[in-house]
From TrEMBL:
Keywords, ordered alphabetically: Phosphoprotein
Residues that span the membrane, as ranges: none
Top-rank lineage group of the source organism: Bacteria
Record-listed 4-aspartylphosphate modification sites: D59
PROSITE patterns assigned to the protein according to its UniProt record, in alphabetical order: RESPONSE_REGULATORY
SMART domains xref list: REC (SM00448)
Residue ranges that the Swiss-Prot or TrEMBL entry lists as coiled coil: none
CDD domains (UniProt xref): REC_OmpR
PANTHER family: RESPONSE REGULATORY DOMAIN-CONTAINING PROTEIN, STRESS RESPONSE REGULATOR PROTEIN 1
Organism expressing this protein natively: Oceanibaculum pacificum
Domain Response regulatory: 10-126
Short name of any one Pfam family annotated for the protein: Response_reg
Keyword Phosphoprotein: yes
Protein name, per record: Response regulatory domain-containing protein
Lineage: Bacteria, Pseudomonadati, Pseudomonadota, Alphaproteobacteria, Rhodospirillales
Length: 129
């Protein structure tokens, strides 16, 4: 994908799978987002200390600090943050959906994800569709 001249904002992507993280980064940069990748929850929190994102994408099953705990810490660290926190996951149970809401998550985006699905759902969750 060619770089878009648009500046749509910043997205933090916390995903432990390097291939998936790179895929999401490529797709989102291709439509004009600045993407800040992190391989785990701790990396996400470090980025959040210096970036005010337009959205945060979190995998649930990351080693060390999982997506749930990362989301909980984000909400405690930045209660003023109004961007959506979106879990990008293959988990489909109602327990996971409930837990995501309980820790402050806003939406779920289920894997596998196509570029079209990623972009359309992200823009929808951000209120930009």
């Amino acid at each position: 994908m060619a770089k878009s001249p648009l500046n749509r904002g910043s997205i933090i992507v916390a995903e432990d799978d390097a291939e998936m993280r790179g895929y999401i980064k490529l797709v989102l940069e291709g439509i004009g987002f600045s993407v800040f990748p992190a391989s785990d929850g701790h990396g996400c929190l470090r980025i959040l200390a210096s970036v005010t994102p337009s959205a945060i994408l979190l995998d649930i099953g990351m080693p060390g600090l999982d997506g749930y705990e990362t989301c909980r810490r984000i909400r405690n660290m930045r209660p003023d943050l109004s961007c959506p926190i979106i879990f990008v996951t293959a988990r489909r149970s109602m327990e996971d959906v409930h837990m995501a809401k309980q820790v402050g998550g806003d939406h779920f985006l289920l894997k596998p994800i196509t570029p079209e699905k990623l972009v359309s759902r992200l823009l929808h969750f951000m209120g930009r569709d």
